[in-house]
Amino acid sequence: MSFLARAGYLLALAAALPTAAAAQDARTFQSVDGSYTFNYPLNFALDREFADGTGDVTGVTASSPANGDVIITFLGPRDLGDFKEVSERTRQEITDAFTKAIANLPLIKLKSSSMTKMLGQPAIDMVFQNARMPFGKERPQIKRYVFTIANAKAYNFECIYREDKAAEFAPACDLAVATVQLADAAAANMLPTDEDDKDAPAAGSCTKLELNRRAMQVTDLTSDMLMKDQSPAMVARVRKAHDAAMAIDERAGQNPSTQDCMDVDAIIATLK
């Protein structure tokens, strides 16, 4: 039930964020075509295609003379190219490909590469430092890319902020990564077709897909709850639901029973 990992990530995020940055102070970004959404802090504004503030909305920004460039953009879907999966096994290969594309100047260096979760899938979080002007007054900039594969397509966030303001703006990138969701039409592409899976179980049975759908409901509900309330009581309630759902997933494995789906339904009922 990999979707539940995102709820666990939100629990960690809730514990890390200061009270002043409570989740009720977040807005939801929706793409122009309605294909995805993610949450972002109130001190960000919509970022548009052109520097004069015109054109399509492309992401969110907190750029200002004091902040420097602060931009969060979600990119995709696009073709996979040479990459068919994201995992620890492929992390170095994918990181090398991003490094080749991003670090095309001597002043841009890879700082770190680590595994995380996005869209309910394994993802790679890559942080690059752009020194920009070695003897100038501009401060080093962070260019951060969080990459994953979902629905047989590639997606990634691009987050840009000054290195000396990482403590202020990195959590906004974390929040976007933790809450990004594809629209139902995109998620439907994950369903097996008759051509792809002729042995798919009959509708209504508790397949792994059905269990994952319920897991997504748990994640959506707990995400919304944490966005509205990060009190210790709420965090404890969400953690209890998350741990219970994870236990069901571990019990079910790849061949869940009807009881497994019913048990997750019971968890969903407690969250509504």
Description:
- With 272 residues, this protein is of the alpha+beta class.
- The chain has seven helices and ten strands.
- The protein has helices at 4-16, 88-102, 166-179, 184-187, 208-228, 232-252, 258-271; strands at 26-30, 36-41, 45-48, 57-61, 71-78, 108-118, 121-130, 141-150, 153-162, 181-182.
- The strands form two sheets. The protein has a seven-stranded antiparallel beta sheet, sandwiched between helices.
- The longest helix has 21 residues, at 208-228.
- It is globular.
- The protein starts with a helix and ends with a helix.
- Mean pLDDT is 82; it is low at 13-24 and 185-204.
- Residues 1-23 form the signal peptide.
- Keywords: Signal.
From N to C, what is the helix and strand string? HEEEEEHEEEEHEHHHH
Spatial strand sequence of the major β-sheet: 3-4-5-9-8-7-6
Q: Class by helix and strand content?
A: alpha+beta
How would you sum up the global shape?
A: globular
Strand tally? 10
Contiguous helical run count = 7
Work out the strand percent. Answer: 25-35%
First-to-last CA distance: 20 Å
Major sheet size, sense and barrel closure: 7 strands, antiparallel
Percent of residues in helical segments?
A: 25-40%
Low-confidence stretches: 13-24, 185-204
What's the gyration radius in Å?
A: 20 Å
What is the average per-residue confidence, as pLDDT, rounded to a whole number?
A: 82
Signal peptide: 1-23
Keywords: Signal
